Amino acid sequence: MPTPPPTGPLVTRDTLAAELRALGVEPGEILLVHSSLSSLGWVCGGAVAVVRGLLDAVGPDGTLVVPTQSGDLSDPALWSNPPVPADWWERIRATMPAYDPLVTPALGVGVIPETVRTWPGALRSAHPQTSFAALGARAAELVEGHAPDCRLGEHSPLARLEKAGARVLLLGAGYHTCTSFHLAEYRIPAPLVEVGRPGSDGTWEVVTEVSIDSDRFDELGHDFERDRDVVRGAVGAADVRLFPVADAVAYAQRWLPLHRSREEEL
User: Fold this and answer.
1) What pLDDT, on the 0 to 100 scale, is given for residue 3?
2) Rounded to an integer, what distance in angstroms lies between the CA atom of residue 177 and that of residue 109?
3) How far is the C-alpha of 218 from the C-alpha of 252, rounded, in Å?
4) pLDDT in tens, 180-221
5) Average pLDDT estimate for 32-51
6) Which end of the chain, N or C, is less surrounded by CB atoms within 10 Å?
7) Which of 135, 129, 158, 163 is nearest to 145 (CA)?
8) Does the structure show a pLDDT above 60 at 4?
9) Confidence check: pLDDT of 87 > 90
10) Which value, to the nearest 10 degrees, does the dihedral of the CA atoms of residues 144, 57, 33, 260 take?
11) C-alpha to C-alpha distance for 105 and 14, rounded to whole angstroms
């Protein structure tokens, strides 16, 4: 039986850029993009066309930023999808390659961020587990200075994006992916955790970090969208949301202590 043709819509670099501009994306702005390629429809050129369309929308003076997380550089004792045998743990810790911003692939954030990471001229922040990659006029200032003991807090690109007036673009992605909400977790009472990973010197290292948790972020996003000015629309078949990083952080900073307090974990 022949494979049925795609139902579309047909998305191209030009249509994507035009629809983003129609939603209010402005030349010269900074966009923090969380994305799902499959949500868009049939994209002519795939992730490459999407990245080109995003860059067209922000123009030569704009900047595109994406999360390029590498959560697999972590303690195998905590792995669950899938787990590995306990008698492997020490060997994995001893041989796991250290983070290299030029070659360590992004994991779990989709093909669009990985395409940005490998794009000519892309810059990537230094955190070995929660890095961001950026393309454009302000890429360097946004990704530099990502502290090794600050995944998504004051010394991460998120705080720089907030200060720079960046906006979040959820391109077919839900609020559970919204890293800006995590910045709020650093500004309210939150437990600390020990995070293991391979160090740059070839040894296993453990750092103390703020515990981050995206539990109930979809609910938080629903309330945020109800109470604040969020641009809503579509690009191709994808639902799209557009809003300032600063607004998301400020709202989450008030919402989380009321609806998802973690003080009992302290």
Assistant:
1) 74
2) 9
3) 12
4) 999 999 999 999 999 999 998 889 999 999 999 999 999 999
5) 97
6) N
7) 158
8) yes
9) yes
10) 110
11) 28
Contact 88, 51 (CB under 8 A): no
Q: pLDDT confidence of 263, banded at 50, 70, 90? A: low
Confidence of residue 89 (pLDDT cuts 50, 70, 90): very high
Q: What is the amino acid identity at position 247?
A: D
For 34, residues 6+ apart whose C-beta sits below 8 A from its C-beta are 66, 67, 109, 168, 169, 170, 171, 173, 177, 178, 179
Instruction: Find how far residue 259's CA is from the centre of its chain.
Output: 23
**Other CB atoms closer than 10 Å to residue 163's CB: what's the count?**
11
DSSP output for the chain: -PPPPP---EE-HHHHHHHHHHHT--TT-EEEEEE-GGGG-EETTHHHHHHHHHHHHH-TT-EEEEE---TTSS-GGG--SS---GGGHHHHHHHPPPP-TTTPPP-SS-HHHHHHHTSTT-EE-S-SSS-EEEEETTHHHHHTT--TT-SSSTTSHHHHHHHTT-EEEEES--GGG-THHHHHHTTS---EEEEEEE-TTSSEEEEEEE----TTHHHHHHHHHHHS--EEEEETTEEEEEEEHHHHHHHHHHHHHHHS--GGG-
- Whether the ω angle into residue 82 lies within 30 degrees of 0, i.e. cis, is yes
Mean pLDDT of the chain: 95
Please give the single-letter amino acid code of residue 112: I
Contact 139, 161 (CB under 8 A): no
pLDDT above 80: residue 68: yes
Strand-pair category, 132-136 with 123-124: antiparallel
In angstroms, what CA-CA distances link 261 with 31, 56, 191, 210, 254?
30, 41, 11, 14, 11
